[in-house]
Amino acid sequence: MFNARYFRTFITLVETGSFTRTARRLEMTQPGVSQHVRKLEEYLGKPLLDRQGRRFVLTETGRRAYDYALKLFAEHEQFRHSLDDDSLDSGECRLASPGSVGLMLYPFILGQQQMQPGLTVSYSFAFNGEIVADVLGGRHDLGIITEAVRHPDLDCEPWHQEPLCLVVPADFAGNGLADLMGIGFISYSGGEDHAGALLKANFPDFRSMSHFRRQGFTNEVSMVLDAVARGLGFTVVSRVVLETSPWQRQVKELSLNQPVHETLHLVMRAGEQMPRRYVRLLEGYREQRRHERFGFGEGPERQEA
C-alpha cells in the first residue's frame, strides 16, 4: 500500500545518512525507521539500500525513489498552496506579459518570491495574441497585454501606464521631425503604433509613420536599443525598456512637451476572482514604479527637442 510517511522517512534517511539521526529528527525509534524503509522496499518490490555494516549506499532504485519522493512532496506543497487563494504569501503565480513589461516586472516578482518562499512563479514572455490564447486555455491565470481585448470569456481592464520615450543615438544633433526622418526608424512589434502616437502629439506636421524610412525590425523589444546605440535610427519605447536596457548610456531620450503613455491591461477568465497574492504583487509593482526615480542624468542623456 502507498504510504507517504514511508517516503518522508526515506528522504530524511538519505539526507542524514544515518538511521539514528533520522529517528532523532522524526522523533521515531530506530527500529521504526528500519520498518518504514522495509515497507517501502516491499511496496516497490526492489531494495533501496545496499547495506555495508552501519553504513549504506543507495541502489539505482533507491536513487530513483529519492528523486521521485522529492518531486512528490514538492508537488504536494505546490498543490496545497494553490488551493489557498486568500493567502498573500503562498501559492503559485502563473502569468505572462510581453517582454517590454516583463523586463522589470519579472525581476520584481522574483524578489518577492525570495522574501516569501511559499510563492512559486511561472512567468512567460509572449505576444498579446499568445497571452490571450493561453489565458483562455487555462495555461496562465493572468495575462498582461498592451492592447485591450474584447472576448465573452475574458475580463479585461486597464492596470498601469508607462510613459513612451523617443530614443535617438547618443550623437544625434537634430531636434525636429525632418531630422528624425533623416536617420530612419527602428521598429518592433507594436513600435510603429507607439511612435505614431508620440510623434502625432508632439509634432504638428507629423502625418504618418509611412513617411519614415524603416531602418530595421526586431520582434524582441529589449534588443531594439542596440540598433539605436549603433546609430542606425531612432525608436519609441516605453520608459521601462529604456531604464532596463544595457545600451541606455549609448542612447539619449529627447524630451517632448506632450507625454504619451502605453496603457497595460490585465486579462483573466471571465467571472474569476483574482487571488490576493496577485493583487499584492501587482499593486506592489505599481507602487515601486511610482516611487522609483532612475537617475537619467547618470544613465541615458535627455535632450530637449
UniProtKB/TrEMBL annotation:
Pfam families: HTH_1, LysR_substrate
Domain HTH lysR-type: 2-59
InterPro entries per UniProt: LysR_HTH_N, LysR_subst-bd, WH-like_DNA-bd_sf, WH_DNA-bd_sf
Keywords for the protein's UniProt record, in alphabetical order: DNA-binding, Transcription, Transcription regulation
Keyword Transcription: yes
Domain of life: Bacteria
Family listed: Belongs to the LysR transcriptional regulatory family.
Name of the featured protein: LysR family transcriptional regulator
Highest classification ranks of the organism: Bacteria, Pseudomonadati, Pseudomonadota, Gammaproteobacteria, Oceanospirillales
